[in-house]
Amino acid sequence: MASIRVQTAQNVSLEYEVASLGDRIVAAILDNLVLGAWVAALAVLFSAGGLNSTASMVTLGVLGGVPYVFYHLVCEVFFNGQSIGKKARDIRVMRLDGTAPSLGDYLLRWLLRIVDTSLMGLVAIITIAANGRGQRLGDLAAGTTVVKVRPQASSPLAPNLASLAGYQPVFPQAALLADHDVALIRQLANQASARNNYELLNEIANKVKEITGIQTDLQDAPFLQTVLRDHAHLAHQ
């Protein structure tokens, strides 16, 4: 599976799995179902009201057409790169450098959607399949792709707070880590453990040692587990 590698502000590399073609197709189907349900609801509402005049039909066309045209642009701008379909599939738009897309990036993707979705979406399917980084034409123009963002799983490195009663910290320097540092360490450690990425674990451990000044011979995974446990204990004192 293709992935993109992002350098975080803490100078640690983080990999994101590129969303599969199947995920994107399912997300598009879900989005079309949402839009179809909106139009159907409007049609039922107007029919029930007996509004069959030309003005009513124009109003129905506007209320149904405007959301259809601007749906993806508005969703991605205001919902952090996700439409309803993308959110259901845990995928979102991201720049190739790992930063959030700008309004201009979203506009480029939106403007080229009409080309990507031509021939029943065949243009987008061929482009994504051939690209290698999950990019349709709109993504190529904007420098974006769509990545898999799974809910954070329970990590084997996450401390069990219930087991910290009477616990004696091994590394008091763990208190030097800010909460956002700990959240990032846990996220990266989750990813490294899930993929058996020992190089990433080593990068994380070395960065923690650099921040805290800890010196130890513990292996990377036990060291990080201990630091997270120490921080959790010290934070709850």
Mind explaining what this structure looks like?
By secondary structure, the chain is mainly alpha-helical. Helices cover 58% and strands 8% of the residues. The chain is built from ten helices and four strands. It has helices spanning 21-48, 54-78, 84-88, 103-111, 113-116, 118-131, 137-142, 179-194, 198-212, 220-235, and strands at residues 3-7, 13-17, 91-95, 144-148. The strands form two sheets. It has a two-stranded antiparallel ribbon with strand order 1-2. Strands 3-4 form a two-stranded antiparallel ribbon. Strand 1 and strand 2 form a beta hairpin. Helix 1 runs antiparallel to helix 2 (54-78) and helix 9 (198-212) packs across helix 10 (220-235). The radius of gyration is 24 Å and the shape is elongated. Residues 151-155 have low confidence and may be disordered.
Secondary structure elements and their pairing?
Elements: E1 3-7, E2 13-17, H1 21-48, H2 54-78, H3 84-88, E3 91-95, H4 103-111, H5 113-116, H6 118-131, H7 137-142, E4 144-148, H8 179-194, H9 198-212, H10 220-235
Antiparallel strand pairs: 1-2, 3-4
Helix pairs in contact: 1-2, 2-4, 8-9, 8-10, 9-10
Q: Order the strands across the largest sheet as they lie in space.
A: 1-2
Q: Uncertain segments of ≥5 residues (pLDDT<50)?
A: 151-155
Order of helices and strands: EEHHHEHHHHEHHH
Radius of gyration: 24 Å
Structural class: mainly alpha
Shape: elongated
How is the biggest beta sheet arranged? 2 strands, antiparallel
Quote the beta fraction: 5-15%
Tell me the number of helical segments per DSSP (H or I, 4 or more residues long).
10
Number of strands: 4
- The CA-CA distance between the termini, in Å, is 44 Å
- Mean pLDDT, all residues: 83
User: How helix-rich are the residues, as a percent range?
Assistant: 55-70%
